[in-house]
Design goal:
CATH topology of the largest domain: Alpha/beta knot
Largest sheet: 5 strands, parallel
Bound molecules: S-adenosylmethionine
Helix content: 25-40%
Radius of gyration: 22 Å
CATH class of the largest domain: Alpha Beta
Distance between the termini: 22 Å
Number of strands: 9
CATH architecture of the largest domain: 3-Layer(aba) Sandwich
Strand order of the largest sheet: 2-1-6-5-7
């Protein structure tokens, strides 16, 4: 995305994150610290939580029920989740993409993160128990996103991951505007290895080329290293990178 598009997307209101959750106290969590926390304090982005349990109507404030068809665990009820979603849509004018964090979702990628970071924000539904009744996801055309092939106990940590990845791309959040342009995934490759001082540590030295001051050679070495590590560790990324460069 060009700088022009970046500044346009952020010229109005700050990037907005909303978490629909049964555990509002899990937010901002790690996002209240470091650069994201400072940016939150500075109003570069906003974070709101919507307590799904607040929409339960019985005296036990029930939000779940047993799975139709049998099986273990409980399922979050569509009527309760629907009320929480409608509340968010009313408050935000329905402008935020609605995302459900789930292992069944499409894997989160840096490309999708970039698109979301340069949009108005995200509303993220955090599942608990066995997950959410499919009908409410279908009714609201919810995008389903996974943060990896493993199962967490709830969607809150996954939502924090998604928000963290987006927030650090908001202009002004990270120190240097250039630093994320050279990171893993930005050009379809993993990052080259990093070194700092001391130049010798426990008998291990920094590769000579990095101390040479020759920018062309450094660039070439880094590219070579990035290609080698991608080929070795991520055949899926390597295949896509090769196809794109051919
Ligand atoms: N029964 C679900 C399954 O087999 O796919 C797992 C449910 S998990 C115990 C509870 C919640 O954690 C999910 O509804 C989802 O919101 C969240 N979650 C767990 N793993 C996740 C992942 N890899 N990516 C995103 N969200 C995840």
């Amino acid at each position: 995305m060009s700088d022009g598009a970046t500044s346009k997307a952020h010229s109005g209101s700050p990037w907005q994150a909303v978490a629909l959750t049964l555990f509002p106290d899990m937010f901002p969590g790690s996002l209240g610290q470091s650069l994201a926390g400072q940016a939150l304090e500075d109003g570069r982005w906003t974070l709101e939580t919507v307590d799904i349990r607040g929409f339960a109507r019985d005296k036990h404030r029930t939000v779940d029920d047993t799975p139709c068809g049998g099986g273990a665990g409980m399922v979050m009820r569509p009527d309760i989740v629907d009320l929480a979603i409608r509340d968010v849509q009313d408050k935000t004018g329905g402008k935020l993409p609605l995302i459900y964090m789930t292992p069944r979702g499409r894997p989160l990628t840096q490309n999708r993160v970039r698109e979301l970071a340069f949009g108005p924000g995200v509303a993220v539904l955090c599942g608990r128990y066995e997950g959410v009744d499919q009908r409410v996801l279908d009714a609201h055309d919810v995008e389903e996103i996974s943060i990896g092939d493993y199962v967490l106990s709830g969607g809150e940590v996954a939502a924090l991951v998604l928000m963290d990845a987006c927030v650090r791309l908001i202009p002004g959040v990270m120190g240097s505007g250039r630093s994320h342009e050279e990171e893993s995934f930005e050009e379809g490759l993993l990052e080259y290895p990093l070194y700092t001082r001391p130049t010798e540590w426990q008998g291990r030295t920094v590769p000579e080329v990095l101390l040479s001051g020759h920018h062309g050679n450094i660039r070439a070495w880094r590219r070579e290293q990035a290609e080698a590590v991608t080929k070795d560790r991520r055949p899926d990324l390597w295949k896509a990178y090769k196809a794109a460069s051919e």
